[in-house]
Amino acid sequence: MNETEKFNLELIVSEFEIEGRFIKGEPYGDGHINDTYIIYIAMENYSVKPYILQRINSYVFKNPEQVMSNIERVTGYLRDVITDLGKNPLREVLNVIPTKHHMSFFKDEADNYWRVYVFIEGARTYNIAKSTDDLYHAGKAFGNFQCMLAEYPVSSLFETIPNFHHTVKRYAAFIDALEKDSCKRAAEVKREIDFVISHKKDTEVLLKLLDAGQLPTRVVHNDTKLNNVMIDDVTREGICVIDLDTVMPGLSLYDFGDAIRFAANSGDEDEPDLSKIWMDLDSFEAYTKGYLETALQALTDKEVEMLPMAAKVMTLECGIRFLTDYLSGDVYFKTSRTHQNLDRARTQFKLVSDMEEKWDEMSEIVKKYSAQ
């Protein structure tokens, strides 16, 4: 049975407010969580209109209704902002197609949750930046996303994944895994364990500022990889932020930091040869420049000041999660080879160390683009 034979896509699509005749559906993209299909619909004028159909992974997202509530609220708000700015809401924000019962999702008899989006034509996503220009435009897109949502009533959103970036609790989970040492792996990774323990205070920095009221709670994307920005085929500009499943309340610094962790890494996330891993300052500068061009007016001075720390903390957090999983027997992150999670942890810790070496340069770059 192939991908499209798992489900009766035509029957599922018939539950949504889509005019026209179903032609076919086929797998689309390379996402690892939801099942995504492109659906082709024949229109009365003989044209063919594509849509995106997705089955939400309810194992990862335990409350799909809350996920869709957040998406529906945020995209509706963005659509109004984009329209008021005289821009194109059909290309610059995801548009959810309602069901015939006026819902944002359809739940089938097997308890699968489905949704449909308008397909954004003339744009695509990229897993790897072709140049620092791509990172600049991704930074602009995520900065603009933050700016447009600056006045959004955050309390109306669900926290769909509790404590997602609670770095203190991530550290506590690491200590618990270390003490249990269920797979007897701790002895072989003493250097990595010592690295995490020596950076305990870094896991507390952002949360202490939040508790002290020095950082505001905002709408946060929580998955700011390059491939979550649609890049226009002609202009090469980032036009739309996608994959909003993890949109929820949090710190803007989470998004910036996680983006740098991904964008400024010189190598693969699981590269065994650490000589190939460093924090690339050109990439950091390109993303920071784009991000601050659009987000600066919405950020507080403290948020701007903490951008380098955000990069460090989010990279450290990711490394801690990889090492925790390795100590626990690789039960959370998928692996395709032995020591893959350990290699992942080591690359993150190498990036953290390199950031510490380049701290002054990172801070000067932030000052440069926040002063303009």
N-end to C-end Cα span: 57 Å
User: How many helices?
Assistant: 12
Strand count, sense and barrel status of the largest sheet are:
6 strands, antiparallel
Oligomeric state, counting identical vs distinct chains: single chain
Percent of sequence in beta strands: 5-15%
Q: Give the overall silhouette.
A: globular
Low-confidence stretches: none
In words, what does this structure look like?
- The chain is α+β, with helices and mostly antiparallel strands and 372 residues long.
- Helix content is 42%, strand content 13%.
- The chain has twelve helices and eleven strands.
- The protein has helices at 9-13, 64-84, 132-148, 167-180, 190-198, 205-211, 252-263, 281-295, 301-305, 307-328, 340-357, 359-370; strands spanning 21-27, 35-42, 48-56, 96-97, 106-107, 113-118, 123-124, 218-220, 229-232, 238-241, 248-250.
- The strands form three sheets. Strands 1, 2, 3, 4, 5 and 6 form a six-stranded antiparallel β-sheet that branches.
- Strand 1 and strand 2 form a beta hairpin.
- Helix 3 (132-148) runs parallel beside helix 8, helix 4 runs parallel beside helix 10 (307-328) and helix 7 packs antiparallel against helix 8 (281-295).
- The longest helix is centred in the C-terminal third of the chain and has 22 residues, at 307-328.
- It is globular and about 65 Å long.
- It starts with 8 loop residues before the first helix and ends with a helix.
- The model has no long low-confidence stretch (mean pLDDT 95).
